[in-house]
Amino acid sequence: MLVMKNIGKVFTTDVVQTHALREFNLNVSEGDFVAVTGTSGSGKTTFLNVAGLLETFDSGQYTLDGENIQGLNDKQRSQLRNEKIGFIFQSFNLIPDLNLFDNVDVPLRYRGFNAAERKSRIIQNLERVGLGKRIKHYPAQLSGGQQQRVAIARALAGTPRFLLADEPTGNLDSDMANSVMTLLQEINQSGTTIIMVTHDQALAKQAQRQIIVRDGKVCDASETAAHIQTQAEITPSV
Amino acid sequence: MPAKRLLIYKHKLKSHQVFNYYCRLALLSILGAKVHSILTMLTIALGIAACTITLTLVNSMSSNPIAHKSGQLFRVQLDNWDPNQAAISPDLPPEFVTWTDARNVVQARQAKRQSASAITWGMVNPAEQGLTPFLALMRVTSKDFFPMFDVPFLYGAGWDENAEQNNDYVVVLSKETNQRVFHGANSVGQTLTMLGATFTVVGVLNDWHLSPKFYDMSYGAFSDPEEMYLPLELKAVFELPHGGITSCWKAVESERYDAFMHSECTNFQLWVELDNPQQKSQFADYLTQYVQQQKSLGRFPRPLNNRLLNVAQWLEYKQVVKQDVQIMFWLSIMFLLVCLINAASLLSAKLHTKHSEIGLRRALGANFSQIVMQYSLEVVFIGLCGGLIGIILALVGLQGVASLYAGYGRLIELDIPIALSVILLAVMGTIIAGLVPVYTACRPVLATQLKQ
Amino acid sequence: MNLLLNIGPIFRALLQQKFSAILVVIQVAITMAIITNGVAITWDRYVHIERESGIDEPNLFFLTSSGFSQDFNPRASIEQDLALIRGTDGVIDALQANSFPLSDSGNWYEIQTSPESSAQLIPAASYKFDEHGINTFGLTLLAGENFNQQDTLWLEEADSQWPSHVLLSRATAAALFGDQQWQKAVGKTIYVNHNTPIIVKGIVEQLYAPWVDWAHVEQTIISPARVTHNSARYVIRTQPGRRDEIMQTLTATLAKMNTQRVIRKVKSIQQAKDEIYAADIATVSILLIVIIVLAFVTAMGVAGLASFNINKRRQQIGIRRALGASKRQILHHFMLENALLCAMGVLLGSIVTLGLNVFLVSQYALVPLPLYYLPLGIVSLFLISQLAVIKPAYRAMGVSPAMATRSN
Fold first, then answer.
1. B324: which chain C residues are within 8 Å (Cβ-Cβ)?
2. Residue B242: is its pLDDT beyond 50?
3. B349 touches chain C (CB under 8 A)
4. Which range is least confidently modeled, A14-28, B90-104, B409-423, C257-271?
5. Would you tell me which residues 251-280 of chain B have a C-beta closer than 8 angstroms to some C-beta of chain C?
6. Do C279 and B324 touch (CB under 8 A)?
7. Where are the transmembrane segments (chain C) (predicted)?
């Protein structure tokens, strides 16, 4: 589903070259819930950006849902992002000038659905995250947990193949964090692949599979073992 | 002890250093966004320049050159016109009077002062002075012309009643003419050959430039006063040409010069000086009586329609301020408005980017009024700079405008009070326009700003 | 994606920042009012200045010869001068004229088709040109014929005598005999001063009165008279391109030839025209500058504001990009947002424009704004603001989608 082979990403400034990712290898299968952990500066965010087609990479091969990403232009990558990936950010990243309805509407507009389709998707997904009655509200009128739920509704509205979550509970207190995690698990159970980047080990443990990024590499050897183990655990129930 | 010292220090800080501190912050903020600041100042400057230029134009065109006597000087209009058609539609009398009426009213001496005058020209041949002949623009007028219009003399004075009665060949020269002929020397008593006769100089005017030249605007409201002044009666003696505007409603009976002088053709400006309303009503009664008497002689076929307009009324009637200039004035006010709105939206956009800084400052203990003070200073500074640039632009612009209105050139100078009041207006406008964004920027709750 | 479909959310988002949106709307509205009214006035003045006076304006100049000595013989001097001028190389023709178009001084008379007082009085400016008039001024004779030498009448100063034949401008003939029947004027007798009969010898196409602002500026009458006067004004037509050169040399030659007079008021018709229309030219120039500067200020304001808004919304742009917006869609978003503000601006602007016009018309003698100026104003404001927003919107296009994962 998501295959990265020897991905490298270098940030070059006048003074230094930083290898944010080097020989990064990852294979995510359909239906996975993967937690990516690592200390700050380890390359987590770069991985997320590359995986989410927000940034290009310099070397290696990246295949997403069977499509080779290398060589795609900005427009094609935008379209792919729009159709296949849903994003959830640490700071929710709702657009403050838009009400909930319009916020969830944003990716659907770019997708080009007709009005009826958009409306039903928006309402369905806002209801799914328990905010169906607040569609006219603005982000500033909601609590952090509620805002993150809106972000999740927005990420799901386009029925993406997988969700990329960047510290989805980082700005939330533990009660809210738990409810968001429960929601993510529900979503995963209904078939959506989730990749979650976090520095919180406790949170990472709730995922089926955990990988650690260090110095731009997937470094923990136990990852493979853990992978097989979780696969074995999960497979019967799927 | 230390606590007390701190308190004193704080007190001192409040008095002037806080202000300096805010000034420095404002300056830093302005310099921090150079392009933005320049754009804002330029916007304000353009609006101020446009307003100052048109206000200066309106002001220089509508100034009353004899304001202190404006209410005492009256233009006399008599309606000797065609019974079937008014001189000026719909029913106004002509602006000028006939030779007959000019002389009759002046000789009746019913006002405190009275003068009838007309523009004419003739050859001056200063052979004695060794100069080549030239054609001079002349005004024939009555002796009262000089005192009633406060005409300034450099040497000598106007002629007296005797000279008028004896038809003496006397002449008053403008300062420029005296310079040309006598090289600026006191020429009173000197003789000058002109119109084929020998004239005696009785007076030389000092600088005298009226804007507008209210007593006779037939050669343009901003034309220069005439080069020479002669007694009215000499017009007939020398059969001088009829300058200015001549209007007739009846054909002149014969080709002779005096036929024109006895015709119903109007060519003379008639002005009187009346000190108070009582004098004015007495004079108006006299005019009524005069016209009635003329009617009995078969003149003045139209209904009684005398007009006495004082200088201010006369200038308004003559629409000295070009309509176009007034229209431009209104447009420039709107232009300034656009510029201020523009400045306000630029400032508001800038302050929006400062929300988190404001939140931080408030978190660190700044109160609402201190924040408002800090950003208001920035706005005032931008407004003042805009004003200064605006005045410079206005100065440059006025040069251009003066060359466009070549005939008005002398008058179009930057009026400092106008410039200052426009700057004041702009700064106030900028503050008001800038205060809304300052207020909205300062008001929001701390938490949301810090969180961002 | 259908662009127009996006209006709803953009509009609702604008409502969230009312203050800056209202400022832009008001600015666009007032700018439109000034520009539209300004252009209308400018055009009106321009048309006024550019009217054809009927004479060969670029190649004409005039000068005055004023005799000052007792034994100066005006008639002999005039004949001598004209012979010299007409013989000068590069001069097409010349004549002595009391007055001419753009001279701003002259006489007018009332003429009628019959001596009865009931006949309509037609005001017409009077020119005294002899048979050289048509050639000197470059007039077009539409009907009838030019004067000949015998027609010319020599007059003393302030003379009221009329010659037997005159030429009329077409407008005068049309005013006397009707719009369709102006040709019929040739050969007819008309009356000046109620009782002086004169025969119409010909009709010229166009010849303006001396005063450009006169209500009947196209109505003129030419009589073949010459006035002997100590001061004589000559009008001279030169070959194209030689006016200024001949103006200089001829002035010097005439001054040298006869020292009993002075040559003064040497001016080209073009100069006279510039002076007469000085106020109108000033209005046109000032308004044009105002319009251009204002368009510039508003464009700068729109661009500045858009630029700041885009900076403020960099992360938002990143989010949109992350959610799948292509670069083009970001560009369209900001263009559309701008167009929406502009639409509200021109809507309000149409009202302000008409309001300003009503005010100006009621206060000053202005013609009401022709309604087709409104769409013109709307289109130009749209152009100005869309052009202004292109650059900042292009910058917005460059915002990386990775902005979305940065917690600023």
1. 41, 45, 279-280, 282-283
2. yes
3. yes
4. B409-423
5. 251-252, 255, 257, 260
6. yes
7. 21-43, 286-310, 331-360, 372-390
Does residue C169 sit in the same domain as residue C318?
no
- Is residue B450 predicted with pLDDT exceeding 60? no
Which residue among C16, C322, C329 places its CB closest to the CB of A87?
C322
Placement of tokens 């004239």 in the chain:
B199
Chain segment A49-94, per-residue pLDDT in tens: 888 888 888 888 999 888 888 888 888 888 888 888 888 888 888 8
Place B113 in a pLDDT band, splitting at 50, 70 and 90: very high
Q: Which residues of A touch C402 (CB under 8 A)?
A: 49, 54-55
What distance in Å separates residue C55's CA from the closest CA in chain B?
Answer: 25
DSSP C337-405: HHHHHHHHHHHHHHHHHHHHHHHHHHHSS-PPPPTTHHHHHHHHHHHHHHHHHHHHHHHHHT--GGGGG
What does the pLDDT average to over C106-125?
Answer: 84
Task: Report whether CATH 3.30.1360.120 matches the domain A30-54+72-237.
Answer: no
Got the DSSP string for A180-202? HHHHHHHHHHTT-EEEEE-S-HH
Residues C33 and C114 in one domain: no
User: Do residue C132 and residue C251 come from a single domain?
Assistant: yes
A33: alpha, beta or left, given left = phi > 0 and alpha = psi -120 to 50? Answer: beta
C-alpha–C-alpha distance, residues C283 and B326, integer Å: 11
C374 and C312 in a common domain: yes
Q: Specify the pLDDT at position A233.
A: 46
The pLDDT assigned to B153 comes to: 94
Do residues C150 and C200 both lie within one domain?
Answer: yes
Inter-chain CB proximity C9 and A105 less than 8 Å: yes
Coil, strand or helix: which one is A86?
strand
% of chain A beyond a pLDDT of 70? 92
Q: For position B363, what pLDDT does the model report? A: 63
How close does chain C come to A78, measured CA to CA in Å?
5
Domain definitions of chain B by residue range: 19-64+322-451, 79-305
Same domain for C222 and C156: yes
Give the residue from C230, C259, C288 where a domain finishes: C259
What pTM, to 2 d.p., does this model score? 0.76
Q: Does residue B342 belong to the interface with chain C, where contact is any CB pair within 8 Å?
A: yes
Asked if the model's pLDDT at residue A238 lies above 70, the reply is no
Whole-Å CA distances, C81 to A22, B10, B63, B286, C257: 101, 94, 46, 54, 9
Higher-confidence residue of B413 and B274: namely B274
